[in-house]
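> example.struct
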């Protein structure tokens, strides 16, 4: 009777097995550490972006205040002579860069005075305010004209005239409205966390 012969399977030393397991465990730990660092950085970046967006949204009310303050001074209280320069009210009766060609607006249309923080660009006589949220508000009003003095169509960018048409055959046409120049209000808000926001509004 023949008996089957079985070849003995080679055995791997326990130390070699332990070394392979340890190596794989180290690779897994390194991969998990890298993933953890990436996750933390992603969370930090996300929180930073959310924080900056929050600060920028908080700068909207100060810019609205600046526009309303300009409207009040120009058209309601009439504390500004619209034909003359009034630095105490941050007002120029002309477009600033046209008169002062060495102090240009930047590529986004921000006037020279608002391109840097006070006092590097902002005149000492200009008014600024800081609200309860820590926002410092500066603004410049420019009449969109070539020079000071009376506003004319040849000198200024004027609003188009409007005419109210008659509604019946017996009704006379109403006279044209007086053309008025445009005024540009540019606002800079420097807020917490080194955020800076710009806004512009055109008035007439």
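> example.seq
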């Amino acid at each position: 009777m023949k008996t089957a012969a079985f070849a003995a399977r080679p055995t791997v030393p326990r130390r070699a097995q332990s070394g392979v397991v340890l190596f794989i465990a180290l690779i897994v730990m390194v991969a998990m550490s890298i993933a953890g660092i990436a996750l933390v950085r992603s969370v930090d970046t996300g929180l930073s972006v959310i924080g900056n967006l929050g600060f920028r949204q908080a700068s909207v009310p100060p810019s609205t205040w600046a526009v309303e303050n300009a409207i009040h001074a120009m058209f309601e209280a009439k504390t500004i002579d619209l034909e003359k320069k009034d630095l105490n009210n941050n007002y120029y009766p002309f477009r600033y860069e046209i008169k002062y060609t060495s102090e240009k607006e930047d590529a986004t249309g921000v006037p020279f005075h608002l391109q840097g923080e006070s006092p590097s660009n902002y005149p000492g006589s200009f008014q600024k305010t800081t609200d309860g949220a820590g926002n410092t508000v500066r603004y410049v009003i420019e009449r969109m004209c070539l020079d000071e003095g009376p506003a004319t169509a040849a000198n200024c960018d004027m609003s188009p005239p409007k005419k109210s048409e008659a509604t019946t055959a017996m009704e006379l046409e109403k006279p044209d409205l007086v053309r008025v120049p445009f005024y540009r209000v540019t606002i800079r808000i420097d807020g917490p966390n080194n955020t800076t926001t710009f806004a512009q509004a055109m008035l007439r």
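> remarks
The mean pLDDT is 78.
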